[in-house]
Amino acid sequence: MIIIGITGHIGAGKGTVVDYLTKTKGLKHYSARTFITKEVEKRGLPVDRDNMTKVSNELREEHSPSYIIESLYHSAKAKGEDCIIESIRTVGEVEALRAIGHFHLFAITADLPLRYDRIVLRGNETDKISFDTFAEQNKREATSTDLHKQNIDACMTKADVVFNNNGTIEELHEEIENAMKELVLV
Q: Which of 107, 123, 179, 181 lies most in the core, judged by the most C-beta atoms within 10 Å?
């Protein structure tokens, strides 16, 4: 069973990478966002980025720093599917998946203003924010010394491949294909 983890900052293009891999490689998608959204809804809270962050941090504190991602992995394992697990946000999540084996971490990066433009176009409910709020959320999620909280910058340093997504979708797709060949995943 091959596991590709996806990490990256808000609006970097994680979903674009997932879409490409599911359509061209047949990998099954397991989403931390979906997992957390269900938990936020179960608690009767509005689904916004602040509540998603709060609830995910609480789940990690209650169970383990890798709880969310390990839950998704167990769902994939039960089906025996090669998969993508999106969004890796803590070092504990990276370490837990590395310990399982057959794991490759892809990180996606792009410039902050471009990422903001993308979330505005995406138009999700959690994306209806000002640039200043976006920059603040990005900063909050980028680093933390608390193992239970998001530390995307640290996750990205552990990536097998980092995609720079400042260009076109076609350029990103080419980078993905090259990485898949290099890692012998095609």
A: 107
